[in-house]
Specification:
- This protein is an all-alpha fold.
- 87% of the residues lie in helices and 0% in strands.
- The protein contains two helices and no strands.
- α1 packs antiparallel against α2.
- The longest helix has 24 residues, at 4-27.
- The radius of gyration is 13 Å and the shape is elongated.
Length: 54
């Protein structure tokens, strides 16, 4: 049986990264835009990796 962290750990992490990225893009200037790109690219790469594994 899987624990709660094993089930929800990655989706919560992806949600946090996307929320940070959106807020950084909307409210930040300069380096925050780069941080936004990085933090929003990571969940997309995780999703692509999972999709291509199938």
């Amino acid at each position: 049986m899987k624990t709660l962290l094993q089930i929800w750990g990655l989706p919560v992490l992806m949600g946090v990264l996307l929320t940070f990225g959106l807020l950084a893009a909307l409210l930040g200037v300069g380096i925050w835009h780069g941080a936004s790109w990085i933090s929003m690219t990571i969940p997309v790469m995780i999703g692509l990796r999972h999709w291509l594994k199938r």
